[in-house]
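INFO worker-7 received task bundle
INFO bundle size: 2
INFO processing item 0
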Amino acid sequence: MPLHLADVARGVRETQYAVRGPIVARAAELERQGRRIIYCNIGNPQSLGQRPLTFLRQVLALAEWPALLDGPAASAFPEDARAAARRALTESPYGLGAYTESKGFRFVRDAVVEFIRRRDGIPADAEHVFLTDGASKGVQSVLRLLVDGPADGVMIPIPQYPLYSASITLLGGTQVPYYLDEAREWSLSREALETAHAQAVAKGIRVRAIAVINPGNPTGAVLDAANVEMLLDFARKHSLAVLADEVYQENVYRPQDRFVSFASVLVRRGIDDVPLFSFHSVSKGLFGECGHRGGYLESRNVHPEVMAEVEKLQSVALCANSAGQLVTWVMVNPPRPGDPSFPLYDRECKEIFESLRRRAARLQQGLSAIPGIQCNGLTGAMYAFPRIQLPPGRTDAQYCLALLEETGICVVPGSGFGQLPGTFHFRTTILPPDDEIELVIEKLSAFHASFTRA
């Protein structure tokens, strides 16, 4: 008997993931027909021209093919890259093709601990670090830990990254949205948090956790220390776990802003009764290594018996991929001043950062100049989430599909991320190269004028 849609689990059928939804499928179809498509739908830096960091790829090449270390080609690699590869091979005696322990290589987890110490000036525990296939797998594991049915709710920002809404739906839980304030640069308010929580409790929902994305996706907003402290106080009051998605911590573009980790505020405030799960990834920042699927989950204030359950979830998947673990190691343990590879590594990182900062400023300026489009400052992450004025009866999904068909620009409707009722948005990345950013702005301007006249 054939398998029909009705035979598929309801949670799967109800799950939506707009970043790779029907508009992206249509874009791929048009591309197969010979159309030129500018993919602005997903934060995939290397697909839009960002070059890999040389040192990372040298270490990967040597670790994946150890014969290079002893052959005539070895001299083509700087000594610190060779030393890093030797260390990786010593710590993984069976090579990168073998399973690792479920939590991931110990030497990489030790490096994550040292990275947190350097970044925040606080201690960490390698036993509370789990290496994951990107941050998404860590988020999904924690949600799997907390959500056991429709009575369990998780607070998520609106707009949010669809990983959260999709995962909660897949698990059969309940989304508890809290709205960010677009009029105040997508700021976070205690009033909005309390309102969202109270409404959920009134419906009989047991709110288990709150997710926060800092810097924000899709908003790009950067939380300051006061915001982080406020959210932790809120979580403490309502006995919530905190899921801190911090994958864009290097993508902060305004000089007056800086990334403040939730772990640093938790420790400095001496908060020992708020469970915190923090996530980082090699896919964003200055690495853009999306395909290598590397990242980590760090936990604090979590009971040992619960930690054992997290490890069990990791064990079900055996381990994170070993190459991604190695990329994570290089991310948290990069060349230092004085190392042979440092000058090139430092120059490449600065060039990538300056290019992202420049494109963020240009895209915000260009979008804001289009009548009928409002775009807040792009202060962090890799996206813009402009508000668009549409004729009565039109939707953002129709707008984005028409934009794709007419211009070849692929963006995602704001409805896929959540938005205040009665408003319309789309999300676009800042990742196209400079010349394509100009083309995107030019085509968007002409399209928007045409679409809103119709």
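INFO item 0 finished
INFO processing item 1
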Amino acid sequence: MKSCKAWLPALAAGALFFAGASFAQDNAGKAPAPIVTVRSVPPAAPKIGTPPPFNQLSGGSKWITQEQAEAYPPLANDFLDASHGAERINKAQYEAWVKQIQ
């Protein structure tokens, strides 16, 4: 019994050694993988037209609603920021927003 237990660690070490050598041989002789360099840049900022006058978007009222802001996509995109979380934008808020984007 003692002799079997003495050989077990040596046998396991030998098996691991030969397994490692066989893995190393699998890659031997193959050409190295090509080196790939990826460079990315952010896309150019979209060109937006001049913001329309407040009266045009508001339809003559004192406010611009979310639905009215859809006529000018940059405003629709920034609606919550321009309105400070409200449901509509007044003329002063719109003018401040226009200064911010220019």
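INFO item 1 finished
INFO post-check item 1: The longest strand covers residues 64-65.
INFO post-check item 1: Residues 54-101 form one domain.
INFO worker-7 idle
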